[in-house]
Every structure is written in structure tokens, then in C-alpha cells.
Design goal:
300 residues, 12% strand, 5 strands, single chain, alpha/beta
Length: 300
Amino acid sequence: MKQAERDIRRKLAVLAHAEGSGNVSRTCRYFGISRETFYVWRRQYAEGGRGALINRKPGIKGRRPNQLPVEVERHILELRKGLALGPLRISWYLSRYHGIRASPGGIYRCLKRNGMNRLDPALRTRQVRSWKRYEQTVPGHQVQIDVKFVDLARPNGRKSRRYQYTAIDDATRVRALKIYARHTQANAIDFLDHVIDRFPFRIRQVRTDNGSEFRARFHWHVEDQGIEHRYIKPRTPRLNGKVERSHRTDKTEFYQLLEYRDDVDLEKKLEEWERFYNLQRPNGAHKGKTPYEVLRDRLR
């Protein structure tokens, strides 16, 4: 504000000097400005008074020619608010489902203009050390299995804990999900049978942590199916990093939008989410392809 006031005073002094001397050229030489600049200031003052003399950054007035259309911005803000997606994934969604081409940079600028360039603190995750990732190339060569603890709020306000058993193929990111009311070896065995029926390829190896649900009974059931069972090292969840990362996706893109009614409704919605994840959702690990598109490519 101090700088703006100084600019106004200087311009008023120039205008006053020209009016007093009656000679615009002499005034311009005295203050070191061009005649064009003088006449611009005089016109601005005549049309808008003191406020019009404040220096403004040069630029195009109104909407910028390369700014995204209003309808596209609406889609961007809906995806950000509803699914907490980043600019790159929003770009993939717009291209795949709306036929709209928008660069991640343009999407970021849209989010920033609307105050949505930073995620809600409840959805942010702590940044951890980046580890070198490995990836199998053959579907079914390695499948990671883990359990996500889910606390759900009932309509009456009471909370219920459920257990989401998750299996993800290392090569394609194809997943199988199932919800259980208890956290037991019997349910882990039931889930393994469900995964074998669900996946459209032979499973060669299963990796789990050392949780109680994956102990002896589960281990020998896996081996009886002709599948190798390997435990990861204790306190190293990064060795099952793909299933752990998929649980974070479940939290931000499924459970935060879920209205829990009962277990039957939950199972139905989880099945829909599994289909969407496998068949329609652009996957960042595969540069926007879905897991089943990658599976199709690998099987070729």
C-alpha cells in the first residue's frame, strides 16, 4: 500500500507540473517520462480518479485465452473433492471418461485458483523413505495378501470394526477383495479359496506378513493348493508395499465416500469397487492403464 501511494503522488505531481507550466514536453523532460506515458496517466486520472493511477501488472483483462473452460473446471473440482485425486490422475480420468484433454499443469493451476491445491489434512499420508521397487512381469507369479482394519459408523452413531482381506497381483495390480466380521485363520483360508476362483490366472506364490491369521493352518492350506507361501521379514511392510498402497487408495477413494448401512450393503458396494478398480480406474503404476488392460497386454 505504501508503494501504491508513492506511485499516485508521483503521477499527481507530474500532472500538476504540466498544468502549472502549460508545457507537456518540458514536464516530460523534467520527470524523465515519455509523452505517451503522460497522456495515459492523464486519461486514467480523468476517467477513474486517484485509484486509477495505481500501477498494475500488465496482462490480458478478463479470462485468459488458455484457461480451461468452466465445464472442464467443474469436472476437475468434482474429481478432487470426491476422490482426492492428484492432477495427473485427474488428467487420466478426464481423457478416459469425458474425452477431455487437459494437462496436469493446467489442472494444478485450476485447483490453485479455487484453493484446492492442498489436500484435506485428514487425507494426507506421512511421507516415508522411498525404496527401490521390484515388479514381476508374469501374472500370478507373486500375489500379496493383507488385511485392512476398517472402522465403520452405523446410522445410530455406534462404530463397528470389519476386516477387508485384500489380494493384489504384483505384475498387473489386479485385486480381489472380501469383507469379514472376524479376523481369523478360517477367514484367511476362505479368502484364499475366493482369490483362486477370482483371478483369471494361476497363482504361483503368495506373500503375507506374520500376522496371526496367516499362521500354520493357513500356510499349509496354501501349500496344499500347489502355491508357495512366503512370509515377509517382521516389521517390513514395504516388502508387501503394493497391497499396503492399495489400502491407502481404498481409504481415500472408497471408504471416505461410503455410507454404511449393513454388511450386506457393504459387501455389494465393495464388489462394485473391486470391479471399478480392476476394469475402469486408471492406475498410476501403469501410466493410466487399468489392471485388466495390463493383464490383457501381458497375456498376449
